[in-house]
Amino acid sequence: MTGPAAARRRLAATALVALAVTGAGCAAEHPDSPRPTAVEKPTISDGVQVFQLVGMSNMRFSAGTLEAKPGKIRVDFSVEDGGASHNFDIPKLPGTRTGIVGAGGSQSVTFTVTEPGDYPVICTLHPNMSAVLRVS
Ligand SMILES: [Cu+2]
């Protein structure tokens, strides 16, 4: 089968495949909602960079990126009322993991980072919860 009609059918089939692939990628990337992209800069308290980070009931951190300079950092981690428990952990940096914090609770961790870089932040309970501590 040749000619313009066949070519149109082939084109239509290609478009359908492209649509199907796009749809599947979309569903795999965000089953719930997009990742937060908010960037948080610290307040400075006695020379310590302080971040307020919330573990939200939609299973996200309140910021996607924490922007810091090398030095001492404190993260005041709190968990939104009425939702699931969360924790805060930077696996590359020992001593940064909070306990499991229940809804309405909070816990702070203080640590020092000397090496610039991107340090992934996770909640060990929810694989979809991620953020980055960016030290530069
Ligand atoms: Cu969590």
Distinctive features:
136 residues; 2 domains; four-stranded mixed β-sheet; 19% helix; signal; Cupredoxin domain-containing protein; EfeO_Cupredoxin; Cupredoxin
SSE layout and pairings?
Blueprint: H1 4-29, E1 39-40, E2 43-45, E3 48-55, E4 65-68, E5 71-79, E6 106-113, E7 117-123, E8 126-135
The structure holds copper (II) ion (CU).
In percent terms, what proportion of residues is strand?
35-45%
Number of strands: 8
CATH superfamily of the largest domain: Cupredoxins -  blue copper proteins
The first-level CATH class name of the largest domain = Mainly Beta
Judging by the overall fold, what is the CATH architecture of the largest domain? Sandwich
Mean pLDDT score, rounded? 83
Detail the poorly predicted runs: 11-31
Count of the domains: 2
InterPro entries: Cupredoxin (IPR008972), EfeO_Cupredoxin (IPR028096)
Pfam family, one: Cupredoxin_1
Protein name: Cupredoxin domain-containing protein
Domain EfeO-type cupredoxin-like: 45-133
Description of the structure:
- 19% of the residues lie in helices and 38% in strands.
- The protein has 136 residues and is of the alpha/beta class.
- The chain has 2 domains: 1-31; 39-135, Immunoglobulin-like (Sandwich), CATH 2.60.40.420.
- The strands form 2 sheets. The protein has a 4-stranded mixed sheet, with no helix packed on it.
- Strand 2 (43-45) and strand 3 (48-55) form a beta hairpin.
- The longest helix is centred in the first third of the chain and has 26 residues, at 4-29.
- The chain starts with a helix and ends with a strand.
- The model is unreliable at 11-31 (pLDDT under 50).
- Bound molecules: copper (II) ion.
- Copper (II) ion (CU) binds next to strand 8.
- Residues 45-133 form the EfeO-type cupredoxin-like domain.
- Pfam families: Cupredoxin_1 (PF13473).
- Residues 1-27 form the signal peptide.
- This is Cupredoxin domain-containing protein.
